[in-house]
Design brief:
With 476 residues, this protein is an alpha/beta fold. It has helices at 19-28, 42-45, 63-66, 81-90, 102-105, 109-122, 190-199, 208-214, 228-251, 255-258, 277-285, 297-304, 306-318, 341-363, 381-390, 402-410, and strands at 3-6, 11-15, 33-38, 47-48, 51-54, 70-73, 96-97, 131-134, 149-153, 156-161, 166-167, 261-266, 270-273, 291-296, 372-375, 393-396, 417-419, 430-434, 446-454, 457-466, 469-474.
Length: 476
Amino acid sequence: MHTFTWTAETEVILYGASGYGHRFYTYLHARCNIISFLDKRADEIRHFIGLPVYDVASVPYDEEKKRSVLVIISVKNVFDHDNIARHLFSHGFVNILYRSSPQKLEKFAALDKISAIYNDVFTNQDLFFPIEIPVTEPMTFYEKKDYGLISQHNDQIIALIPPLFISTNRAEGRGASKSKWRDIPLLSFFPNIDIYNFFNGDAYANITLYCDEYCPSGLDIIGVYTSQRWKENIVSSRGMVHEQMSLSYDLDPDFFIRNAAPAVWNTLGYFNLTDGKNRSSFLLSRGKRFIPLKVSINDYQSFLSESVANSLISYLETEQMNEVPFPILNPYFYRFPCANSAAYHMLLHKLARWLGEYSFQKFDAMCLGKITILNKSVTFHYLAQSLAKLGCSVDTIIANTPLLEILNNLYYSQKGVRNVSKYKIDDYDLILCDDGDNSLSHHQHCLFLSQCQCAEGEQMLARLLLNDMYYNVILR
């Protein structure tokens, strides 16, 4: 463990020119040498308590000075400390005092010591110089840990699985060989998702196909008469199921772990549910990013794909990537820093659900493999990969990166994204592109990436145009 010696003469910079910055300055200025502040709003603050305020990216210090000063993060939101520390480190600062997340403190002794010293400063404890502070190093920001595993009993485990890796039963009930609903990606299983969205109060949820297509599937084989009253009874019954699951969700959230849906691994690279579609669809309707499943140890090990995960860790270390622009959907990386994880999941859920309904309406069956998508945006390249994972036929004019090549292996992407140099816009059902692409003026289904101004400043906005209706998701 490399350390840095903090003395009364050490030049100190406070990150955060606001209330907490003032608090830290009040306690420290008589004890050590504070020379400036850092803040994202440096261009409008400029000076704070008589000291200059700089932006991290444009601070007027050379690399040698950055490595000799101590930066103390004086920001109230401790959940943001790790992100700020990564940002500082990426700009050359290596002596950083902050409070790290509990998950990392359990693993790294260096971070535990950094946080202990930070707490002494925060609580105005006496400081006795010199103080040895561990130097921040790249992999201090990440640990390899299985964040999906919840519990294990004999050869069965309960683990959190991304919905992108979950599909319905391979043999879906009555008349399975003819069923339209077998082996369907959970994210695109719109009849079940919509029935729970409907009970959640979503005015746009369409339950007609649930009643007219999904529930009656196969009943004609055994002679069941599906009248209007039968449909009303189905909706009433699902309403009671929704109410009970809603109460469990609010009062007994562990219910969904104790009763995790069982599933088996498909060699194509995902899990097939053997039961629990309603539980899983309900959780998906609540926006859950991960669904608890009960699976065998061997099946879970196949999903973990540890050797490929190790290759990804090596790549991230080599490239010194402390943050990625999209979530990595493998248990070892559930907590890997990603600036827009929630927005990505929201966008993927909305798009995958629409693709399911669009496919059904176009082909009278769930045929995602017949859905064609063209990607023209660097930002949406990873999303394109996820849509290929759903089974869609995806072309791109953007070259694959080494990171995406590794993820293709990690995700068991059999189909993958195909690079093309020539294409016809009208050949595709959906286009992923940047805003202002004049070639798409007549296309009905597009996902645009655009910049917009709001009260918080400039935002990156995903504008989803589906059948002349816009849906907006702020990415960052």
